[in-house]
Design goal:
By secondary structure, this protein is an alpha+beta fold. It is built from 12 helices and 26 strands.
Length: 538
């Protein structure tokens, strides 16, 4: 085992050095001979380590486990998206990652750019970070083995073969081109970085069974009317605003590891002699790229009209059939009610999470406890984010209700499909937040100091608003609104104003009075009793 891991680390180093040789030449031609000399030296070391009778390693199948059949379908590529070409080498023993990203970026701001901003979200977990991305109430769940920190260090940044000055402060990476980028100009940024993954129960984390990577890759920040958006990694909700992009990602792991990632698997090679596996993913339209690795993953797959569902899990006692049956019903309901899921499949991956689950493009991470006792409300909410947070994007920081409340209401209509049952459920939900005059959908993520208030606002109050909107517009017009909203803003970032304008257009008259009441500073609700403790979802 030690020899295999040694070969894995050497091969990984050769791959990084090979890329470094190319990149060094891109940056300074004088470095080319030195870098490639190192590559040849390490290649010679590895070659000498083989027995004379051994042949060059063959490419072998993935031990009967392969995702290649998923690549038969790819969603159409939309021109105008930025592109990430990434190579990652993951060492599960040390829980370290070496990466190189080539990011093709076009200045679409309409103004010259003196600075390009990227987000390095893993650094929210660095020791000494100014703001923790979690509330104290979740510390024991996030750090079940004791406090541990993670980080990502940037080794260098180049643009069009030129070394750049950069500043990494917390999760914000400022890159300074030598000359301002003119509107419409396209450049290629190259980043090399090293990262350490802590054993924590969060979007990126690890346990004794797997490692998972959500909001891990350095990505471009969104540039809006007020400039680059550099919000904190708030401890509540989904504190990210993300444009669509395309990804080509190569992930190098030990040979016995199975990799689940966003998009489709377009290549998979196992080198037996080198004890490595190279898995390549392509995602044409994604807001983020997430992946997970484990030598213990089992996989189940079912085909539905809403898209294939893949479950990756390492706990043998999971109620797999129950999980898949719930997922099938939800995916088919969402496709029927809203519109076809624009991807061929979705992956559900077992992880440790401090909440029940989180959604990424084409993939969701679910906590083991949530999967052990599957709840259609919880799984439905996370799957609903595929339609209302990943296909249609929004500003989750300022307008979290736009995807959380809508997804929850759509799932409630599935679970309580009879009008009297839905009415009774909504009455119970209203009673839960009765008397909470501090709740307003205008409250953004930075205003919350606990998870319960956020949940009561953007999940529960948001759902109640959409229920009232359904009653105001009528069931037929309301669902026409939801379908048109999905079609009009898929692969874009929608705003609350976009939704309200479309609602008024479909309704045929102004709805200003309706929305003003829900976004008032004080919202009067009927009194009632507290409700049950539900699974937490961002």
């Amino acid at each position: 085992m030690r020899n295999s891991l040694g070969r894995f680390r050497i091969i990984s180093l050769i791959r990084i050095l090979a890329k470094e040789g190319t990149l060094a030449y891109e940056r300074r031609p004088m470095k080319k001979l030195i870098a490639w000399g190192l590559v040849l030296f390490f290649a010679f070391v590895v070659a000498c380590g083989r027995a004379p009778s051994e042949e060059y390693p063959d490419e072998t199948p993935n031990n009967g486990i392969s995702d290649i059949d998923e690549s038969v379908y790819m969603p159409p590529y939309i021109p105008g998206f930025d592109h990430y070409d990434v190579s990652l080498t993951v060492d599960p023993v040390t829980r370290t990652v070496s990466g190189i990203s080539r990011t093709t970026f076009t200045n679409r701001t309409g103004e010259p750019l003196e600075t390009i901003v990227l987000r390095v979200y893993l650094n929210a977990f660095r020791q000494g970070a100014t703001a923790a991305p979690y509330f104290g109430e979740f510390e024991r769940r996030i750090f079940p083995r004791g406090r541990e920190y993670g980080y990502m260090d940037i080794q260098y940044v180049t643009m069009n073969n030129e070394d750049l000055i950069y500043e990494l402060t917390g999760t914000v990476l400022l890159v300074h081109p030598s000359e301002p980028l003119v509107p419409g100009e396209t450049v290629q940024l190259v980043l090399q970085y090293n990262a350490y993954i802590p054993q924590i129960a969060h979007r990126t984390g690890a346990n004794d069974h797997a490692m998972w990577f959500g909001m891990f890759l350095p990505v471009l920040a969104v540039h809006g009317e007020d400039g680059w958006q550099v919000h904190d990694y708030y401890p509540v909700g989904d504190p990210f605003v993300l444009h669509m992009a395309s990804f080509d990602v190569e992930i190098i792991t030990p040979a016995n590891y199975i990799v689940a990632g966003t998009g489709v698997t377009t290549g998979e090679t196992t080198l037996v002699e080198d004890d490595t596996r190279v898995t390549v993913f392509t995602a044409s339209n994604a807001r983020s790229f997430a992946f997970a690795i484990s030598p213990y993953f089992n996989r189940e797959r079912v085909t539905t009209v809403g898209g294939d569902i893949h479950l990756y899990y390492y706990t043998e006692s999971l109620p797999v059939d129950e999980i898949m049956n719930i997922a099938i019903i939800i995916m088919e309901h969402l496709a029927d009610r809203i519109g076809q899921y624009p991807f061929e499949h979705i992956r559900i991956v077992e992880t440790d999470m401090f909440i029940s689950g989180v959604a990424f493009s084409n993939m969701i991470f679910m906590d083991t406890n949530a999967l052990m006792q599957p709840d259609a409300r919880v799984l439905g909410q996370v799957l609903g984010q595929q339609w209302f947070a990943n296909v249609v994007g929004s500003n989750h920081i300022q307008e979290s209700w736009l995807d959380k409340g809508l997804a929850r209401y759509v799932i409630a209509c599935l679970l309580y499909d009879q009008p009297q049952d839905l009415w009774r459920h909504m009455s119970e939900e209203r009673a839960i937040i009765a008397g909470r005059e501090d709740l307003s959908l205008a409250n953004s993520l930075e205003t919350f100091d606990n998870w319960a208030d956020y949940y009561s606002t953007h999940h529960r109050l948001g759902m109640l608003m959409f229920d009232d909107l359904n009653r105001r517009m009528g069931n037929e017009l309301f669902w026409e609104l939801v379908r048109q909203y999905f079609q009009a803003f898929h692969f874009q970032i929608a705003t609350g104003e976009d939704f309200m304008s479309l609602a008024a257009e479909i309704y045929g008259e102004s709805l200003d009075d309706f929305f003003e009441r829900w976004f008032a500073d004080v919202l009067s609700m009927p009194t009632g009793e507290s409700g049950e403790d539900e699974g937490l979802i961002p």
